[in-house]
Design goal:
By secondary structure, this protein is of the alpha/beta class. Helices cover 43% and strands 17% of the residues. The structure holds nicotinamide-adenine-dinucleotide.
Length: 402
C-alpha cells in the first residue's frame, strides 16, 4: 500500500507514475494551444519543477516550441527512497521534451546562489545559446545568503491579526484560525525571500555574461487577489514581498531598454499548488472560488493561465509592453466574488461540507503529488526509480477521448 503522507497541508511523499501522468496530461493541453513566437528561441524557468513554473515550461516547450533550461530545488529519488513530486515532474518533463527534440536542461540546486546562475551561463555558452525569455516562478520558504544570514519567509498579516477559518484538507476539518501580526524582521525577511532581489540578480548576472538575446523578455509571477484574501495576502508579509517584486520589474525594465528588453509582472489567479495550499485560509478560499467559478463557467487551470498570459500578453506583438500582464480577471469577476462572499457569510462547522467543494479540492491537492488518480493501483508500492519510458499513457488519452 502506498499512501500520501500529509501534515498541515504539506504532502511529503509522491507517486512517480501519478507525477509522470500529470506532466503528460498538461503536455497534451499545451500541444493543443499553440503560441506564435520567433523561431529557435530559448527560455529559462526559475522554479521549474512544480505548479506555475512547470506549467510555464510546458507551455514554452509544447505550445511555443522553445528549448528550455529549468532551475529547481527538490528531493531526488534514490533506489530505496522516494523523491519529491517536483523531482518526478522534472524527470517526466525532460523525457517528453527530449522526445519532442527540444533541449531540456535542468539543475536541481538553490536558485538563490551564484553557482546556479553560473551553471546556467555555462550551459548557454556550451550550447551556443542566448536566453529569449526568463520566467521567474520561485516560491521558497527560505533564502540563504552565504556568510550573511538565513532569511525565513513568514505568512502573516501586518496591520491587524488575521481571524478566519482554515481548511485541514486531509482531516476535512474547518478550523478557527488567528494569526498574529508579523514583526518588522519577519516582514523584511519575507521580502528578502519572495521579493525581487534574486530575480534582479538573475537578470543582471546573465546580462553581464552576455547571454541575453536581443528583445529579451522576463516575467515574474504575482498574486493580487480580491478583498477576500487581502488580510492574509495582499496586506500581509507576502503582499509586501510582491510589492517589492513589482518595483523590481520597473527597475529591470529600465535596465533592459538599451537591448529592446522588457520586464513584467504576470498576475495570476489563485491556483492549487504545493505552495498556495500552505497559505492559511487559501485552501478554503480556493475551494469556494473554484466551485463558484465552475458555476459561472469561468475556470482556468495553471496551464491555461500561463498560456493566455504568454499568448495575449508577453508574446503579443500588437500589445504595448505593460508592467502588469493580468490574467486574474476570472477570479476577480464581480459575480464570482459576490457568490464567494455569499458562501463565506453562511459558513459554519455544520454546513461547510455541503457548501464547500472540499472533496474536489482534496483530489486536486493530492493529484499534485501523483495521488488520487483512478487508473493507479495504490495498493502496490511503486519503484522509486522506475524509468520514465515504461509509462505510456497514450492508451489513457484514447480512453479519455472516448
Ligand atoms: P510551487 O510550490 O508549485 O513551485 C515552486 C517552485 O520553486 C518549485 O519548482 C521549487 O522547486 C522551486 N524552488 C523553491 N525554492 C527553491 C530554491 N531555493 N531554489 C530553486 N528552486 C526553488 O509554487 P507556485 O504556486 O507555482 O508559485 C510560483 C510563483 O507563482 C510564486 O512566486 C507565487 O507567489 C506565484 N503565484 C502563485 C499563485 C498560486 O495561487 N499558486 C498565484 C499567483 C502567483
Amino acid at each position: 500500500m502506498y499512501r500520501p503522507r500529509i501534515k498541515n497541508n504539506i504532502c511529503t511523499n509522491a507517486h512517480p507514475v501519478g507525477c509522470f501522468y500529470n506532466v503528460y496530461d498538461q503536455m497534451l493541453d499545451a500541444l493543443d494551444a499553440p503560441i506564435k513566437t520567433g523561431k529557435n528561441q530559448t527560455a529559462l524557468v526559475v522554479g521549474a519543477s512544480s505548479g506555475i513554473g512547470l506549467a510555464s515550461r510546458l507551455a514554452l516547450t509544447f505550445s511555443a516550441g522553445m528549448d528550455t533550461i529549468g532551475v529547481y530545488s527538490e528531493r531526488a529519488a534514490q533506489a530505496h527512497k522516494y523523491g519529491s513530486a517536483g523531482w518526478y515532474n522534472n524527470q517526466a518533463f525532460e523525457y517528453y521534451a527530449r522526445r519532442a527534440n527540444k533541449m531540456a536542461l535542468s539543475t536541481n540546486q538553490d536558485a538563490f546562489q551564484k553557482n546556479a546562475k553560473d551553471w546556467v551561463i555555462q550551459k548557454l555558452q556550451q550550447n551556443d545559446k542566448k536566453i529569449d525569455v526568463l520566467v521567474y516562478s520561485l516560491a521558497a520558504p527560505k533564502r540563504n545568503i552565504k556568510g550573511v544570514a538565513e532569511y525565513l519567509s513568514a505568512i502573516k498579516p501586518i496591520d491587524e491579526n488575521f481571524q478566519g477559518h482554515t481548511l485541514d484538507v486531509f482531516e476535512e476539518e474547518l478550523r478557527e484560525l488567528v494569526i498574529e501580526t508579523a514583526s518588522q524582521d519577519e516582514v523584511d525577511a519575507t521580502v528578502k525571500v519572495m521579493g525581487g532581489e534574486d530575480w534582479q540578480e538573475w537578470v543582471l548576472r546573465l546580462k553581464k555574461a552576455g547571454v541575453l538575446a536581443e528583445n529579451f523578455k522576463t516575467v515574474a509571477y504575482s498574486y493580487m487577489g480580491p478583498e477576500q484574501t487581502q488580510s492574509i495576502y495582499g496586506r500581509g508579509t507576502l503582499g509586501c514581498a510582491k510589492a517589492h517584486l513589482h518595483e523590481t520589474a520597473i527597475a529591470l525594465d529600465n535596465a533592459l531598454v538599451s537591448m529592446g528588453g522588457q520586464a513584467s509582472i504576470g498576475v495570476l489567479q489563485a491556483l492549487v499548488t504545493p505552495s498556495s495550499s500552505v497559505i492559511p485560509g487559501m485552501p478554503l478560499y480556493m475551494s469556494v472560488l473554484e466551485q463558484q467559478q465552475k458555476k459561472f463557467g469561468q475556470c482556468e487551470n495553471a496551464l491555461q493561465q500561463v498560456n493566455r498570459l504568454f499568448k495575449e500578453g508577453l508574446f503579443n506583438k500588437s500589445r504595448k509592453p505593460e508592467q502588469y500582464l493580468r490574467v486574474d480577471d476570472l477570479e476577480c469577476n464581480a459575480n464570482v466574488q459576490q457568490a464567494v462572499k455569499a458562501v463565506y457569510a453562511q459558513l459554519n462547522q455544520s454546513n461547510f461540507c455541503d457548501l464547500v467543494g472540499i472533496k474536489h479540492f482534496k483530489q486536486k491537492f493530492l493529484q499534485q503529488f501523483g495521488f488520487a488518480h483512478d487508473f493507479i493501483n495504490y495498493e502496490q508500492k511503486p519503484d522509486p526509480l522506475t524509468p520514465p519510458a515504461i509509462h505510456d499513457f497514450s492508451e489513457l488519452s484514447y480512453q479519455k477521448a472516448g
